[in-house]
Write a structure and sequence with these properties.
Order of helices and strands of chain A: HHEHHEEHHEHEHEEEHEHE
Helix content of chain A: 40-55%
Number of domains of chain A: 2
Structural class of chain A: alpha/beta
Strand order of the largest sheet of chain A: 4-9-8-5-7
Largest interface: A-B, 51 and 51 residues
Shape of chain A: globular
Oligomer: homodimer
CATH superfamily of the largest domain in chain A: Rhodanese-like domain
Largest sheet of chain A: 5 strands, parallel
Distance between the termini of chain A: 34 Å
Strand content of chain A: 15-25%
CATH architecture of the largest domain in chain A: 3-Layer(aba) Sandwich
CATH class of the largest domain in chain A: Alpha Beta
DNA sequence: TTATCATTCAAAGATTTTATTGAATGAAAT
DNA sequence: ATTTCATTCAATAAAATCTTTGAATGATAA
């Protein structure tokens, strides 16, 4: 094997990793796995795929070393291989968000209001939490809340919001947060709440960023994602 | 458009970026562009492709926002869009290197010697440069050296090494460096030099990492890559 | 041991991606 | 105005990726 062939093999190997990132379903899966570990069934349902298809995509991710599995009872749980995968995914997602005009258009479109974005960043939120100025709700599915959530947040899954409005305070700001910047559940929640007369904002990032920024969380060890291999 | 369709569009847009990273030729191009801006012709030659093929791959990268072009005379120069692309590429490359056993096997194979790796890291190198203990050679093509190089390095392109051995000192360590960790020219140089009786090491990373670490360089402004748009 | 059921596999057709070829463009230089 | 030539385009065939379907696996729980 000459130098040229060696070089080509190297980049082909590297491309195994990037190829596994090149499919939109797999990106959605990764974004979900940034929240914790889940069974194939859960992933298929929450990323809107058939179980067989999800299984195949998960195997691609596993073969490239981005995710790993553990079995518990009759379920196989998939998780990100380690923190570096989370870090790299966040960098990539951030790059895509900043570079791609279309995405920003889509997000703005979705939020419908260009002028008042009702956004709050993580530092502002942290401050308000500490001075007890906000009521913080986690609109992700309960399962994900249970795996870990922002300190002092209450779980109020997006699909139960309408029926549980009376649990919310009217005398304080409400902040809703979600998985990450691409997660739309928080947008919908904030939209609804403001329509109903509440004073609501959304966290501009999400739980995975919060975690990566080492801000206070509950119930989830920071090293949940750490592989303790061998 | 409902939420599900929105979500799907978002990830599809993001996948435009990751898809453009999913081809081994394009990875090699990115790795080259981490050194500076080059014409289509130069890129085609140094990444071992036909010009038409390189042009098409470059257009994919451009459409996804990862690279940009400027014209100078009759050449069109492609460059990374901004520092964030370089950062993200380095993170991705690092992840691939650490995750992929095959790549490490290939690199070890290439270096042929598992026990003595003749590697030196950038901090060690910097120290030795400052105390004048090493003779540092840049084995990349002269064009790339001219765009910028490690302070105090001399240019000795890989393909001229054999004929110019007499220029090298025998009383000092020699350190060779190259584009990045995947660049094999430094390995070959170190191999040859040690065979010829010199005391040679290679920098374990490369010029792009050196630059990203803000270590001293010559001739290239740190913001060569900065887009000054509009 | 047997039944259950979450997950994976295998095959096939549809879609997308890729390399090659030769021609077309169009900016710069003469 | 014309020529040059770096780059891009367009068409095609080959290769790879993706989704669906229904069946197979194989670990767990009974």
């Amino acid at each position: 094997m000459n130098t040229r062939e060696f070089k080509s093999s190297l980049y082909k190997q590297l491309a195994l990793v990037t190829k596994s990132l090149s499919n939109h379903h797999r990106l959605e899966i990764l974004d979900l796995l940034a929240q914790g570990s889940f069974s194939v069934e859960y992933i298929a349902e929450h990323a809107n795929m058939s179980v067989a298809n999800a299984s195949q995509h998960l195997q691609v991710l596993k073969k490239s070393g981005l995710v790993d599995t553990t079995r518990d009872g009759k379920y196989i749980y998939y998780q990100l291989f380690d923190e570096r995968v989370l870090e790299t995914w966040r960098a990539l997602r951030q790059l895509g968000l900043s570079q791609n005009h279309e995405i920003n258009m889509l997000l703005e479109d979705y939020q419908k209001r260009k002028d008042q974005l009702y956004l709050i960043n993580s530092d502002q939120l942290l401050q308000k939490i500490q001075s007890n100025e906000v009521y913080l709700i986690d609109v992700r599915p309960k399962e994900e809340y249970n795996l870990g959530h922002i300190k002092n947040a209450d779980s109020l899954p997006h699909n139960q919001l309408k029926e549980r409005l009376q649990e919310l305070p009217t005398d304080r700001e409400i902040v809703a947060y979600c998985r990450g910047p691409l997660c739309l559940m928080a947008d919908e929640a904030v939209n609804l709440l403001n329509k109903k007369g509440f004073n609501a904002y959304r966290l501009d990032s999400g739980f995975d960023d919060w975690l990566a920024e080492n801000k206070p969380v509950e119930k989830r060890e920071m090293n949940t994602l750490t592989k303790n291999k061998e």
